[in-house]
């Protein structure tokens, strides 16, 4: 996903490595190159600037200039810094309560329903849980059908009430249903909108209040670049979510949003979606993503 950025960084480092005698000016120039590459990859300006400033300070502090292989040391510093920027280490889901309530939020098309199915599958297969999916997207009948199909695929029951148009009542009834039926995780798929609007925010906030979820996962399409960061900020301001799910990382994304989201909303990325199939879900590893970025 970051091949473009990576190419540019490679080139920047080649320049640095090619210099027999590295000066502070060379480092500054390289940082400028890196900052440009990050901006081109759709990382927001503030993140790119603070990242390169931090790397530069560390590089000078660790005496990169007089080290045997400055390029290598600088790569390590950048790797560590990127890892830190994306959350440091894996942030596990909080799934100890029974039932654990997980609210799924995001705009239409972000991949909420698909992720709900994937998460149910992941929790059943990898964590030995007995999840219940709740079809809370009342405005799109197709979304209810879609969730039922996915539920069948991953062998997880789906709570549906086709007679209700009240997402809050459905969510609450879904939780009650889980308690009655011994489901220890409830995954509530919610309705999105094409863009952020007040009705959506009021509704999702009301669902949160009524169900008191332990996790609120904000799902966002990584291909939407800078918009992903803005949407994340708007949702977080209202919902105070507990984690981010970046979908469609299998596509040809510019991907810079992954770097920015954590620093802008200060919430961990917990999962990445890497395809349409139910198995195409990975726990987000900041160090792996950093290595992938830097190559
Ligand atoms: P929702 O409106 O937020 O519920 O979004 P959907 O779950 O319906 O997903 C919208 C489209 O994106 C569907 O065609 C999904 O198959 C697709 N999709 C979801 N997640 C991924 C992913 O990680 N990778 C790819 N390539 N497609 C995805």
Automatic annotation (TrEMBL):
<keyword id="KW-0378">Hydrolase</keyword>
<keyword id="KW-0342">GTP-binding</keyword>
<comment type="subunit">
    <text>Part of the signal recognition particle protein translocation system, which is composed of SRP and FtsY.</text>
</comment>
<comment type="similarity">
    <text>Belongs to the GTP-binding SRP family. SRP54 subfamily.</text>
</comment>
<keyword id="KW-0963">Cytoplasm</keyword>
<feature type="binding site">
    <location>
        <begin position="106"/>
        <end position="113"/>
    </location>
    <ligand>
        <name>GTP</name>
    </ligand>
</feature>
<protein>
    <recommendedName>
        <fullName>Signal recognition particle protein</fullName>
        <ecNumber>3.6.5.4</ecNumber>
    </recommendedName>
</protein>
<comment type="function">
    <text>Involved in targeting and insertion of nascent membrane proteins into the cytoplasmic membrane. Binds to the hydrophobic signal sequence of the ribosome-nascent chain (RNC) as it emerges from the ribosomes. The SRP-RNC complex is then targeted to the cytoplasmic membrane where it interacts with the SRP receptor FtsY.</text>
</comment>
<keyword id="KW-0694">RNA-binding</keyword>
<feature type="binding site">
    <location>
        <begin position="247"/>
        <end position="250"/>
    </location>
    <ligand>
        <name>GTP</name>
    </ligand>
</feature>
<keyword id="KW-0733">Signal recognition particle</keyword>
<feature type="binding site">
    <location>
        <begin position="189"/>
        <end position="193"/>
    </location>
    <ligand>
        <name>GTP</name>
    </ligand>
</feature>
<keyword id="KW-0547">Nucleotide-binding</keyword>
<keyword id="KW-0687">Ribonucleoprotein</keyword>
<feature type="domain" description="SRP54-type proteins GTP-binding">
    <location>
        <begin position="268"/>
        <end position="281"/>
    </location>
</feature>
């Amino acid at each position: 996903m970051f091949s473009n950025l990576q190419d540019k960084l490679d080139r920047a480092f080649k320049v640095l490595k090619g210099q027999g005698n590295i000066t502070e000016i060379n480092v500054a120039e390289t940082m400028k190159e890196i900052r440009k590459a990050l901006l081109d990859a759709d990382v927001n300006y503030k993140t790119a600037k603070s990242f390169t400033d931090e790397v530069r300070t560390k590089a000078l502090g660790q005496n990169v200039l007089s080290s045997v292989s400055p390029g290598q040391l600088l790569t390590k510093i950048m790797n560590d810094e990127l890892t830190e920027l994306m959350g440091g280490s894996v942030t596990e889901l909080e799934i100890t309560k029974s039932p654990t309530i997980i609210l799924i939020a995001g705009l239409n098309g972000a991949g909420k329903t698909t992720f709900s199915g994937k998460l149910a599958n992941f929790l059943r297969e990898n964590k030995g849980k007995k999840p219940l999916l709740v079809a809370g997207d009342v405005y799109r009948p197709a979304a209810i059908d879609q969730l039922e199909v996915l539920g069948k695929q991953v062998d997880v029951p789906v709570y549906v009430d086709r007679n209700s148009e009240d997402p809050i009542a459905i969510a609450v009834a879904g939780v009650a249903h889980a308690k009655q039926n011994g489901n220890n995780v409830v995954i509530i798929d919610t309705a999105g909108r094409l863009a952020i609007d007040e009705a959506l925010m009021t509704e999702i906030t009301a669902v949160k209040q009524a169900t008191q979820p332990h996790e609120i996962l904000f799902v966002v399409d990584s291909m939407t670049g800078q918009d992903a960061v803005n949407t994340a900020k708007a949702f977080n301001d209202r919902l105070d979510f507990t984690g981010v799910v970046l979908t469609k990382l299998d596509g040809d994304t510019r991907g810079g949003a992954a770097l920015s989201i954590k620093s802008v909303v200060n919430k961990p990325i917990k999962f990445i979606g890497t395809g349409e199939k139910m198995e195409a879900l990975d726990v987000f590893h900041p160090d792996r993503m950093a290595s992938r970025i830097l190559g």
